[in-house]
Amino acid sequence: MIAIPLTAFLLVAAVLFAIGLYAIIAQRTAVMVLMGIELLLNATGLNLVAFWRFTAPQDYSGQIFVIIIVTIGAIEMAIGLAIMMLLYRRHQTVQVDKYKALKG
């Protein structure tokens, strides 16, 4: 069995994080922003699993944290999509720049 080095996992996680950050900054639709946030959470989970695997594989705390992160991501996506559906019904657009009432 070929052992994959830690740097490979960290590189993939960094690429996922960069794509997610780009999706949050560059995209103007609310669904793409939510998908970018989801990519950020997945990159964090990949980092946790990689460090867990290479530092303390006998301890399952890394996997527990990843399960918590995935659960929080699912809840965030469900609530975010519900809010976006309500905003779409009210304003008839999914462009986040058009929501002037949400600005402080």
From TrEMBL:
InterPro entries (UniProt xref): NADH_UbQ_OxRdtase_chain4L/K, NUOK/Mnh_C1-like
Complexes and interactors: NDH-1 is composed of 14 different subunits. Subunits NuoA, H, J, K, L, M, N constitute the membrane sector of the complex.
Organism: Nitrosococcus watsoni (strain C-113)
Keywords: Cell inner membrane, Cell membrane, Membrane, NAD, Quinone, Translocase, Transmembrane, Transmembrane helix, Transport, Ubiquinone
EC number(s) per entry: 7.1.1.-
NCBIfam families per the UniProt record, alphabetical: PRK05715.1-2
Primary subcellular site in the record, as a coarse category: membrane
Enzymatic reactions: a quinone + NADH + 5 H(+)(in) = a quinol + NAD(+) + 4 H(+)(out)
Record-annotated membrane-spanning stretches: 6-25, 32-52, 64-88
Keyword Membrane: yes
Cell compartment(s), UniProt: Cell inner membrane; Membrane
HAMAP family membership: NDH1_NuoK
Name of protein: NADH-quinone oxidoreductase subunit K
Family: Belongs to the complex I subunit 4L family.
